């Protein structure tokens, strides 16, 4: 898949950001590889912008770094103003799955909720082995298509207009039964506040 100039620019900034975050923690490539489960050689290619992480690899890196993917990607663009124009919304494309992920409301100081627009091509499957942050709150609204989610072993099939609400601690899996577009609002858990029942859709 060929990248547009904007996508290529974002990939370069992502490479620089990953290297900066690792170095700021005083970690070697070997340390990050051990913490994330992504090989040293692969991490080195990411930091040199020779290849781009898949959605699953990015999730593992975010888990090791202690942040959500939307925060990592959102911080590639500066700004803390109220209006976020379309041109200012970072768009990241997973070259492996075809996922297009646009940060509509990137994380920033003073706001706890992040809003993301995602598009998955028909037949795409993305399986995450761990949540980047334990207890991360999700509200997913399917706009178009047909989507099946498996959240920690429980399956949910969504039709346009359906909303799935859940807090994620472990594995989840997305399968686009048709080309799908959805909005995802996420909220990071507050320290000491996670006393809520972990069952999907139940308080």
Considering the chains and any ligands shown, give keywords for the structure.
single chain; 203 residues; alpha+beta; six-stranded antiparallel beta sheet; four-stranded antiparallel beta sheet; 5 helices; disordered C terminus
Question: TL;DR of this structure?
Answer:
The chain contains five helices and ten strands. It is an alpha+beta fold.
Structural class of the secondary elements? alpha+beta
Q: Uncertain segments of ≥5 residues (pLDDT<50)? A: 191-203
- Give the biggest beta sheet: 6 strands, antiparallel
Output the helix-strand order. Answer: HHHHHEEEEEEEEEE
**Total helical elements:** 5
What percent of residues are in strands?
25-35%
Helical content class? 25-40%
Terminal CA distance = 42 Å
Q: So what's the overall shape? A: globular
**What oligomeric arrangement do these chains adopt?**
single chain
Please give a structural write-up.
The protein has 203 residues and is an alpha+beta fold. The chain has helices spanning 5-24, 29-36, 40-47, 55-65, 69-74, and strands at 91-93, 100-105, 113-120, 125-128, 136-144, 147-151, 154-158, 163-168, 172-176, 180-187. It has 5 helices and 10 strands; from the N terminus they run H-H-H-H-H-E-E-E-E-E-E-E-E-E-E. It has a 6-stranded antiparallel beta sheet. The longest helix is centred in the first third of the chain and has 20 residues, at 5-24. It is globular, with a radius of gyration of 17 Å. Residues 191-203 have low confidence and may be disordered.
